[in-house]
Design goal:
With about 230 residues, the protein is mainly alpha-helical. The chain has one domain. The chain is about 85% helix and about 0% strand. It contains eight helices and no strands. Helix 7 runs antiparallel to helix 8. The longest helix has about 40 residues. It is globular. The N and C termini lie far apart (about 50 Å).
C-alpha cells in the first residue's frame, strides 16, 4: 500500500494543480478520467511496441551513442507519439475542448496517466527510494512534456490556418524535451564509473535543464490561462 501511495501521490498533486488552474470553465470529470486512462493505455502500448524490438537494438561502444539512442529511440519518440495519439483521438473533436487552456489540461492528464502506470512499475520493482526520486523528477517531467504538448495542441485547434504546423510542434517539442531529459540521465549513469567529472557535469546540466523546463512550463500555463479568460469574456 505504501508503494502504491508513493507511486500515485505526486500524480494526484499535479493533476489537482492543473485542474484548479482552469479559472473559467472546469472540464468534465468523466472526460478528464478518459484522458487519464488514455495515458495509462499509451504507457501499455509503448511497452507492447518496444518489447519485441529490444533484441534488435544496436550495441554501442560509445556512452554518448548509447545514451542518445536509449533516450530518443527507446523512450522519448515512441512515448510522446503514443501520448499524442491518445490525446488526439480522445480530445480533438470533443465539444468541451473550447478554450486555450483546455489543451494543456487534457494533455497533462494523458501524460500523467502514462507517468502513473510507469511509476507503479518502477516503484514495485525498485522500491520506495526510486519512487520518491521519480516523484520529484520523472512525474513532473512527464507533466511538463504534457504542458508543452497541450500548449501547441490548443494553438493548432484555435489557429486552424497553422494547424498542421502546431500539431507537429505538439509532438516534436515534447520529444526534444523528453529526449534531452533522458539523455543527460543515461549519459551520467553510463559514464559515472569511468569519469566522475563528466558524470557530475551531466547531472549539473540536467538540473539546469529541469529548472529551464519548469520556467517554460509555468510560462506556457500562464499564457493559455490568460488568453482563455480573455477570449471567453471579451
Amino acid at each position: 500500500m505504501l508503494l502504491v501511495f508513493i507511486s500515485v501521490f505526486p500524480v494526484i498533486v499535479i493533476l489537482l494543480y492543473i485542474y484548479f488552474r482552469d479559472k473559467y470553465e472546469k472540464e468534465p470529470i468523466g472526460l478528464l478520467l478518459k484522458a487519464f486512462v488514455g495515458g495509462l493505455f499509451s504507457a501499455l502500448a509503448t511497452i507492447l511496441f518496444l518489447s519485441p524490438l529490444h533484441s534488435f537494438f544496436p550495441e554501442f561502444y560509445s556512452v554518448h551513442g548509447m545514451a542518445f539512442f536509449r533516450a530518443f529511440a527507446g523512450a522519448a519518440i515512441p512515448e510522446e507519439i503514443l501520448k499524442f495519439a491518445f490525446l488526439y483521438f480522445i480530445i480533438w473533436n470533443n465539444r468541451n475542448f473550447n478554450e486555450n487552456f483546455d489543451g494543456i489540461v487534457y494533455a497533462v492528464f494523458v501524460a500523467l496517466g502514462f507517468a502513473c502506470f510507469e511509476n507503479v512499475l518502477y516503484v514495485t520493482e525498485y522500491g520506495a527510494g526510486v519512487g520518491i526520486m521519480r516523484g520529484i523528477f520523472a512525474v513532473p517531467g512527464h507533466a511538463l512534456d504534457g504542458v508543452i504538448m497541450g500548449y501547441y495542441f490548443s494553438l493548432a485547434r484555435f489557429k486552424p490556418a497553422k494547424s498542421s504546423g502546431y500539431l507537429l510542434k505538439s509532438v516534436l517539442y515534447p520529444v526534444i524535451a523528453h529526449g534531452i531529459y533522458d539523455f543527460l540521465l543515461f549519459y551520467a549513469s553510463g559514464i559515472a564509473e569511468e569519469n566522475h567529472f563528466m558524470a557530475g557535469l551531466a547531472i549539473i546540466a540536467f538540473l539546469i535543464f529541469i529548472v529551464a523546463l519548469w520556467r517554460a512550463g509555468f510560462r506556457k500555463i500562464k499564457q493559455h490561462v490568460e488568453t482563455s479568460v480573455f477570449k471567453t469574456t471579451s
